[in-house]
Amino acid sequence: MAVLTLNRQKLQENYRFLKDLFEQKQVSWGVVSKLLCGHKRFLQELIDLGIDEIHDSRISNLAMVKRLKRDIQTVYIKPVAKKNVAQMVEFADVSLNSELETIRLISEEAGKQEKLHKVIIMVETGDLREGVMGQDLVEFYARVFELPNIEVIGLGTNLNCLNGVMPSTDKLIQLSLYKQIIELKFGKSIPWVSAGTSVTIPLMLSHQLPAGVNHFRVGETLYFGVDLVEEKVIDGMHGDVFELQAQIIELQEKPLVPIGNLAANPQGQVVEIEEGNLGKSSFRAILDLGILDIDPKYLEPEDEEIEVLGASSDMMILNLNKNPQQLKVGDSIKFKLKYLGVLGLMNSRYIEKAVI
Question: Which residue range or ranges hold the Alanine racemase N-terminal domain (predicted)?
């Protein structure tokens, strides 16, 4: 079985880097845990960092967080489906919302559960995912303001999640102005301007974050140490908190070019023949994982001489060229991973998970 490992020390060092950064800027933040898919051991590693706020897009994951640490603040980070409102109110202390009718249902359910539910109203700033349009925001807030058992603790936005619209100082200043307008009109304090996710951190690093922005929701940069604008690891952080090790189950020298009449494979792909490879061979290794677990484009062999050729549902094929490392059946190949690669592996029950 292939193994996905989480390196505890590297995770801790990434966390301390971000904690220091946010403290210097006097910005609150929560850790997004959705990458971990509710895995109990990995969630415990997060909690052991000392965090006091966890965000997730799955109610079952937040339920696991509450079982591990009841007093941690949990945040549900997408509009909740109507049928799931009761569960969401039970396990999430805060939720991100952009639909008035949904907030009404949350208000009713919070009353039944004798709770005060906190809400961040999401504002559309251009990426065209969730969010209330700016021109409708004051009226929207006025209606939410009247609802019992609801406390609006912030205005938020999401950028770069759908259409790739990047955060900018101007967009975040606009979000801060909306907050000021509402506070003046209603005489009510809104504590947070929740500016976004890991993609907004580079604005902070380059001292371009507007003063009014005081809350972040961070996942990818914690786990991968990445500057999502420059697409590189931030100095002082680790990009390899997660690593995949997969075992070789076959290793033989074979032709580089398939033999026979070619048609589309099960993924709908037709292999293109490179004439220069006719008559040539190389050592090919088969690993014990496949597309069911991860899309090959989201992993990269640590050994740069190894090439990922493709995968079927549960086997992956590598080109070892002349196999200079003298690898054999039973040996493991190590891979660097991208965010969506780890997400696929975490969601696969066929992949072992371990902390090192």
Answer: 7-224
The CATH class, in words, for 7-232 is alpha beta
Tell me if 7-232 shares its fold with 242-355. no
Closest CA to 224 of 67, 77, 43, 32: 32
pLDDT in tens, the chain (356 residues): 899 999 999 999 999 999 999 999 999 999 999 999 999 999 999 999 999 999 999 999 999 999 999 999 999 999 999 999 999 999 999 999 999 999 999 999 999 999 999 999 999 999 999 999 999 999 999 999 999 999 999 999 999 998 899 999 999 999 999 999 999 999 999 999 998 899 999 999 999 999 999 999 999 999 999 999 999 999 999 999 999 999 999 999 998 777 777 676 767 776 676 767 776 899 999 999 999 999 999 999 999 999 999 999 999 999 999 999 999 999 999 999 999 999 999 999 999 999 99
As annotated, the active-site residues are 34
Domain segments of the chain: what residues? 7-232, 242-355
Q: Do strands 53-56 and 28-32 pair parallel, antiparallel, or not at all (unpaired)?
A: parallel
Task: Quote the tokens at residue 120.
Answer: 């961040």
Q: What is the CATH number of domain 242-355?
A: 2.40.30
Question: Nearest to residue 167, comparing CAs of 127, 130, 137, 131?
Answer: 127
